[in-house]
Amino acid sequence: MAESSEIIFDKLVYSCAFEKYRGDEEFIPEHFLGFQMSGETHAFYADGNTVISENQIILVRKNQLIRTVKYPGKAGKYQFISISLDSETLRQYALQNKIIVENRNKNKQKLFFEPDEFLNAYFLSLGPYINRTKEATPKLANLKIMEAIELILQSNPDLKNVLFDFSEPYKIDLDDFMNQNYMFNVSVEAFAKLTGRSVSGFKRDFAKTFNTTPKQWLRERRLDEAMYRIKQKKEKPADFYLDLGFENLSHFYFTFKKKFGLTSSEI
Fold it and tell me: Which of 6, 58, 66, 110 minimizes the number of CB atoms within 10 Å of its CB?
């Protein structure tokens, strides 16, 4: 069974699977709080990777690119709950509670929580909504999100500098960023936002930096990396084509031969 993701209420998503499942490339536009009910999530991003183990709680920062592989637990089931902490709700909370951000935290690592009976109890309280034994009204759904924010700050007050930083991403160096993130198969719009630019500004700066379009550069960069993996690391395309952002194996073989004039097996 492939993974199924169900929106329980506006900002709460429950994911379930009974076999190893590779998630899509994801642009994370909002912070979210997640709880690994069973199994493991292996998350890959530009700076490294993270393993989210059973019963672990994690806060994932907004404006990131992440790829995941999901593994069922010993009981044969994968379950993950995530609740989105959207900017509108966070602004509302900050206004009501007179939150002032003192130091903007530039560390982009994922944030794990130590075992916390309050946060654990919070996710257990979502059980009736997941099992559909109770329906959440819009007002109650909003209260549950506010409760999550309150518990995060109770666990670590300094996280206010992460949650309530509403500044736009600043313009960053395209060369460094793209060479760290070229393997993510996401839209130009996502790349633009992550580098602190409008779409038109991103395309304009990209042309100045690389003398080509994002689409052409990404294809060439991925193919060059594929050549390195085949020739130097002796890897097979079937083992890495998804990791390099190719949507399917046949498309990879076609573009590879078109660029290099040889098939991967001939090399």
Answer: 6
